[in-house]
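As noted in the main text, all predictions were made from sequence alone. Below is one such record, for Major Facilitator Superfamily protein.
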Amino acid sequence: MSRSSSGPLPPFSPSLSSATPPRGSSQLPALLANFSYILDIAAFAIILPGIAASLNIGADQALLLFAAYGASLSATLLLGGLLIDRSSLKLIFLAGLSIYTAAAALIAVAPTFELVLLLRAAQGVGAGIFSPCVPLIIAACARHGSARGLTMWGVWSGIFAALSPLAIVLATSHAGADWRLAWLVVPTTSLIAIAIGLNLRADAKISGSSGPPATGAPAYYMFAYVFLSYGVTSWFIYNIPLRAAVLYGLDDIGSATFSTLLWLTFSLTCLAMARSVHLSMLHGYLLLSAALLVAGTALFFVTPWCALFVGAAMALANMPTTEIILANARRGAFGLSASFDIVCARLGGALLVVLVPAEFPGMTIAMMAISATLAALALMSWKSGTRTAPATLSG
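Prediction:
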């Protein structure tokens, strides 16, 4: 069904088969798996100095542990999406999560750098396989529609990401906790997700409607939007704490506090969106996100409170991009679409963090130009119209 330029955007509307009514509790294994995934992102940078000290390695080798995970995750994301479209959603979710959990648990007892590096790569493979399952399970099991389900996913993700960095800094700084003890939270959370996930329907898989495949034009604009938007927000997520001492005179606790405020702002913005989801406003949310990134860029060299603008901008882009991408996914390609969404985010984050150093004289101009491009992409996606190919979680 085509969308007129003045009408609302038809939602991506997954549902469960009549044999199993939708229940919010079905989202729990996906939420827990996602929490473990986020905890790795939020916490690994904080515990990395402790890992380097215990393994007696330098900073360059320590960064390889971060790179190995990201590279293997990105390399296997599309494989994960293809497997989802051709196999049981439960099987792929649990298989990927099991690899991720086993590798993460072994990292805590690995005695050498080489073994930790290998395990980090294996952990990334598992994450690449299970992570595309998460938005599909959450959207399919949402009680009040996929847009609200995806937005509430953002709320809980932001809360978890907000609390974990500060908690780990406080634990390692004042309670004398070893990094290995802090790290065990990652595999423990994902192990609980596996245990609960065993109750997912064994024959569940994502399939398209019987109608014609959807047009992909709006989704293509959204893939570009995700690449740039996640790139900019990742740049801030890394550079605000990295430059906290020099730019703002903050210590580690102060730096972690503003990282926490960024994620809390993300959660609160998601919560505000979830309380009143207006599908006709999805592209408006994306335009507002671009404007907030302009404000965050303007304030970066002045105050760490720029984190509030970045957190809100990230939230405003999170649900709408996923909703639009899934709404325009071609029949039988929902897993692949979810995977490519994550690939764009990961690549955008990695490239902009590396290619746009904070000391770069034209950094502000570059960020402003990217924000303007984001606004243009949102407008082009809106003008291009939307077709829907609703997905079902079927047996």
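The two ends are 26 Å apart (CA to CA). Confidence is low (pLDDT under 50) at residues 1-24, 208-215, 387-395. These features were considered when defining construct boundaries for the mutagenesis experiments described in Section 2.9.
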